[in-house]
Amino acid sequence: MEMDIWPFLALSLGVSGLVRLLPWGTERQRVVASLLVLLAFMCWAPFVLDNFRLIQMTRIAALGLALLGLNILTGYNGQVSLGHGAFVLMGAYTVAVLLDRKEQLNLIDASPWPFWATIFVAGFLAAAAGLVIGVPALRLSGPYLAIATLAVMISFPIIVRKYGTFTGGSQGIAFSRPPTPPFLEDLLRREQWTYFLCLLALLVMTALAWNLLRGQFGRALQAVRDSEVAAAAMGIHVARVKVLAFVISAFYAGVAGALLALMTGIVNPETVDIVQSINYLAGIVIGGLASIMGSIIGAGAIVFIPSDAANQLAKLPFLDPDMLRRAPGAIQGAVVILVMMLMPYGVAGALHRLARLRPEQVLAGWRQVPALASQALGRLSWAWDIRPRARQGPGSHNPKREVVGHGDGGSNRPTQDEMTKGGQ
Amino acid sequence: MLRLEGVTAAYGPIVALRGVSLEVEAGSVVTILGANGAGKTSTLRVISGLLRPQSGSVEFEGMAIDRLSPDQIVRLGIVQVPEGRQLFVNLTVRENLELGAYLRRDRAGIRQDLERVFSYFPILAERQRQAAGSLSGGEQQMLAIGRGLMARPRLLLLDEPSLGLAPLVTREIFRIIRAINEQEGITVLLVEQNARLALDIARKGYVLETGRVVLADLSENLRRNEEVRRSYLGY
Amino acid sequence: MEALLSGLLSAPVFLAPKPWEDWSLFGEQVVLGLLTGALYALVALAIVLIYRSTDIINFAQSEMAMFGTFAMWSIWLSGVAFFSNPWVLLVLAGLFGLGLGAVVERVVIRPVEGKPVLTIVVVTLGLFLVLNSVATWIWAQGELPKSFPSPLSVLDSWDIGFASIPEHRVLIFAVGAGAMVLLGLLFNYTKVGLAMRATAQNPLAAQLMGINVGNMLTLGWALSGALGGIAGALIAPVVTLHPAFMLPVLLYSFAAAVLGGLNSVPGAVVGGFIIGVAENLLGTYTPHAILGPEMSLPLALMLLVAILLVRPTGLLGERTVRKV
Known about the structure:
heterotrimer, A: two-stranded antiparallel sheet, C: disordered C terminus
């Protein structure tokens, strides 16, 4: 049997969501059960999806790791990086060099590395790079750090091109992808095998991250994000926490890069470009900052918005399919802008709020729909309302925004503070 | 002149004002007393249009002002000197004062008022070209009040002018507030934690607790009130 | 030791021109760098204008400028005699940018105002995609490359003794400098300029002064759009006109803005010139075999990072004072 991705995702998310929301057992049991159901669906995925969609799902698993890493750094710790693509690229090159260029590197002997070992090497090398960048990053904050990391990302591919002895220059390195292990050969095609590999990596590393973030270290990360001075006053070693965040985050990115390389079997400077790297940040903001689930949702957004936004919208009767075909980016951009307008704290933030609603609140909310709609219209009126400088009747006023930051809920979200100049 | 009627207001889920009513007569000094979080600053924010009331009305000289934007309210002559002074710290003293007169177009009048502010606060004249952030706390408060005066207000809202100032400086500031009221005829609504000084210059006072007016009376009665003495005057 | 060093430096890999061997070449590179730097300064200024009042880095800056330039190109092609004058086009580009900036602020940015900064930054990324894609759709379907008119010849040069300076670069410098001077006058000698500075510094207090903060933000975006638009029309004649032509300028300008300090207007100008000169000198005086022109961008960026490490908020940026 074969299914398209959207019914499949709707089915799997719907069923697991139902398990989560239906009234049975304890809260904890419901969460665990719904996650298990979701996992079962994800294990079923490679047998019902076509190859294109399967590769997309594999990409989401790999990118999910990169975004999770970035979210640990940016979402939990408040250090904004636009350069995580560099760590991902580094992980990818590590795998490629180890699997193909080992002889040129003159490493001990020429027998091929097992592919799984290269994943770890990629992770640890990226982590080392994270240390090298994380220490000077202590001096920078907010947009200055963001641009400095972007500078690293811009430079990295150019350097790779220029010094092509090990890296293959612009051509990159093609290597043979690891085949399905013998005992699974009858069961899985290579794409399916790669998918399970990535899924396994995602599972293990997500569990690790979850364990790490819910404990003392997670609290330290967030305390440093919210106020370094207060965190230091509580006895947290601020510098150590920030550097560690960089190292861990780079480790995740390196592993993600390794998986991406193993997926495609070719690595070149374009494997991760500047736009991709910036997209990682967009991904975690869309998915939800300081949220594990948000990181994976963000990876889904990065993969699916370019491939599907235009096509799906072309089915709507009132949109011109010709324009959609010729300007797909316009639709992608519009989707991104709309998501941010409707869910400023990301999809995970919105879901989180939804999950906390009780039935009676849902009912009350439903009754408010007309009022909210008119409010939304009023909000839009800002666009054409150019207020005259004097003598405006009290009746024609529009809701004036507040300038000082009494955040409307969700004020625990990070980086707002991180990127604002302190003090008035 | 100013009348609040059953004003409620909230920051998101946090309710700040639960039905505040008060009245300020033209030409008088009225004070609002209360502990931290009682809703004093929120009341001023509602009057200035920075916080929109959920219900109740705010009237200025018979006109409803609770739907106006902050700049429209300043235009009516209601000027706030906010808590913590909120100066433009990187701009010069002179520029801060000029911004006070932002909505005015009468150049001659502005120049006159500048002289008047300098006569109240001679130190500001000396420091004209200095960045506002480099002034001492007392000088900054003087600048904040001077900046408010530059708008030629009819109602001046003062939010904790004594905050963080030495007692001597505080007394000087209050002397000037009284002078402003008596000589210029500017109505003053004064929010203060220093109840003794506030009741000295105010004709009447309101006591706020957790967003409600719990006492409203003439100053001399308040000063004699047992509750007020214990809670706010400390004897 | 010295012998070793000089031996090493004369090794073929490290061969590079040295400034003291030809001072006129050095002078020429510096002048050319300054002229290009004006362009970076202009765009850096546009970035700073938005950043200092809202803490937002506008990634769509380059695409707004690109969009305006293509629009001017269409107007130029329309054949109306008045619009065939490149000077008119340059002014129009500024006006178009002014309008586009204002519209973007009202329609796209205002609905997310007050939301986390990163959310708004991502909105500008979305805007980048939209403008880029729509421009491709409208203008870049057919034949490329396209050329854009310049008020001065793009081929002729002026000889100033030690160097020969392309006329068009002088134009970039003159117009860029003119725009910056006008902006400086606006900020320092007008009431609106004072109000904009006040709003950037303390929006709450600005509101209490009766300043309409929303209008000031719109004005900031509009001015930023105008600067970008002028920059686009200035560089367009010497590059191939395609939907990504402003992106490299944007990257250099980010570097310039950060170098000068993101909240400092003079910093943006200084940063722009430094980046322009550094780009040229690094391309000329580094050993070509191991570094060379294609490495000038990474080198310039590494220089930027190095400077940031010494001065974390840029050369002229205000130190951020955090209230606890």
